[in-house]
Write a structure and sequence with these properties.
about 180 residues, 2 helices, about 15% helix, globular
Amino acid sequence: MSRPEWFARTGELVLKEDVTWFGMGEEGLSHGGLPAGLSKAPVYTGFYWLEEDGGPAVARACLVVVPLADPDRIAAADWDDGYEDYVATPLEGYAVLCSSPFDPLWSDDDGEAHLREAKRIIEAGDREGRRANYAEIITDPDRGGNALFFPVEGEDRTAYKATEPDETVVCLAFVDYDLYPH
C-alpha cells in the first residue's frame, strides 16, 4: 500500500442499513451490524501524491477510515484480518464508499450519472492540484443519502473492521493497494 502522506476529513457518510466499499468485486464489500441510533459517521482519508508521465502530481486515496464509536471503544475492539480473496476491481481508478441502497455499478436509476459526475469533479481536482481530491454525490436527495468517490491507483482493495464482543462494528478501514507493485 502507498503510505498516506496526509489525512483529511472527507465529509460524513449518511448511514442506512450497512456501509459498502465498492471498487472490489461486483457486489462490493458490505458491513452491517452498525451501532444502533447512528445516522452519520465522519470519514477520514489518507492521501499521497502520485506523479506519472512527467505530469503534475495528483492526490490519490490509499486509506479511508470510518470511526463509528469513540476512540476507547475502537481501541478495545477486535480487528479482523481483512479480506483474503483478491477480486479484480470493476471501477478502474475509483473506489466508492456509500450506505445502502446506492449501488454505483448496477443502479437502475442514476448510478452511471453519479459516476460520471464524480469523475468530472475528481478530474477538476486533479487539474487544480486539490490535496483532498474526492467527490461527494447526493444519491438520495429525499433522505440525504450520499456516496463518496475516491481516486485510487492500486489494483486491489481490502477492508478491515473493528467489532465488539456483541458483533457491533465500531470502525471500518478501507485500503487501496497493489498486491504485486509495479
